[in-house]
From TrEMBL, chain A:
GO terms for molecular function: GTP binding; GTPase activity. Residues 190-216 are annotated as: Disordered. It comes from Bodo saltans (Flagellated protozoan). Residues 206-216 have a biased composition (Basic and acidic residues). The keyword Nucleotide-binding applies. This is Rab5 GTP-binding protein, putative. Pfam families: Ras. Keywords: Nucleotide-binding. The lineage of its organism: Eukaryota, Discoba, Euglenozoa, Kinetoplastea, Metakinetoplastina.
From TrEMBL, chain B:
It comes from Bodo saltans (Flagellated protozoan). GO terms for cellular component: endoplasmic reticulum membrane. GO terms for biological process: endoplasmic reticulum to Golgi vesicle-mediated transport. Keywords: GTPase activation. Residues 53-293 form the Rab-GAP TBC domain. It holds the Pfam family RabGAP-TBC. One of its GO terms (molecular function) is GTPase activator activity. This is GTPase activating protein of Rab-like GTPase, putative.
Amino acid sequence: MASASPTRAKDIPAKIVVLGESAVGKSSLALRFVRRDFIPNQEATIGASFLSRSVSLVDESPPVTIKFEIWDTAGQERYRALAPMYYRGAAGALVVYDITSADSLRKAESWIGELRRNADPQTVVVLVGNKCDLESMRQVSIQQGQDLAEKEELLFYETSAKDGTNVDALFTNLGKTLLSRGVIASGVDRRSTMSRNLQPPGSRTPKSEQQKRCDC
Amino acid sequence: MGKKKSHNPQVSLNTQDRKERVLLNEVDRVRATLPTPAYLAWCRQQCRKRGGLEFDSVRAVIWRDLLLLIPQASSTSLTPSSSGVFSGVNNNSGRASSVNAGASIAGNSSSNSNTTTTSSTVSGRHFMLAPSVPYAGGTGDGGALSPNCHLTVLDCDIKRSLWHLYPNDTIREEKRQLVKSLIMRCLSHRPQLHYYQGLHEVVGFVEYTVGAHVPRETLVAMVDQLLSQHFYAFCHQNMKSCEGILHGVHFALKVQCPELAAMLEELQLGPGTHFALPWVITWFTHHLAESHP
């Protein structure tokens, strides 16, 4: 169970980067989570934008509040050179594709590859198939998304920024995963936590922790 | 980027009209009396004035001249015909004066120093001409265009643009197609330049500001000059040329306001984060408050 709360000094910061092809709904996803709203006339993101929201995880013992500090990046290929400065040191990365675009899934795969090669091995990666409200236009099946997530050992969600499906669940579960893996910890410097838990890519996500959910 | 027309309710429309006319006459007078380099220096000075140029009709003249007048050819004439240059095209703005450079330009072309764009003499002054390569794509798929147009991304951006400038759906869609065609026409003859996300906002704003005051070909020539001069560094295939400028922004901030620069660094928003990127590459048309109303 999660609830929103204002930012406080004891909030645990968690840097999250949102990556993916242009127009897959990265900004809409972030805005849906942060403002609980969908803006139909959302304009293209230039470079990157920053948003944050604190969420209390009252089921945790003791209850904790995570401040998600979200870097929403531009999708155009030429901005890719800027991406490392956003995913470097990130606790989590959302790699977003559009379920109505098979091309966007291929681009998501390339982002996953880049994160594997260059990001902190502890960074928790979530594969997100957005626009699941557009079922009639679907080009990427749930199974395809799940298969990729399983192969790459990622968390997986299908979401709709438009109607809010799975958006809160995604972030809540991401927060819990960050805590359970020690990527973030209350009262402990994250970098030292991460350095204690370095694992090679591929061995970082126990199968038992994988989340393959779609409530669409 | 300049502001839109003033909307101070204290000032009556007639007063605004009079003020606009006075300013346009002033531009006309200075333009007619000064040699081109001095006139262009005066134009730059007007742009830097507190409050800016105030009226889109004035911006249309001054932006056009700053972009398209060729200083080297200025000594040939100091007295342009006001009927030829400020001829009141006024497509649909209803404003007092406007410019008509594109329609007046004819023949007598010469080469620019580093591009294929040509120039022509108008009333004794040399102007840059619009790109000679026509845009064949119309409003649709763009046909066989060079990859530097990045049509897929451009299409995505165009479809979600101009919301705050044109509330009317029909007009907004027309303007989107116009902006797209402007970008594609200019880029299609400059393969070394690449479309980047944000350029559509710049071109959209230029069209919004001067589109009603200049002929289409003049607008094309203005956008072409912007891309090849002012935005050249941002139109490269990669971000390298951009990064130096963005580091420069932080350095300038450090000189002007060291406290703010220190605070940004403390928040890990130092030069490496390129916090100013959206403002710099969109000429400040990409405003946070407008992006996320």
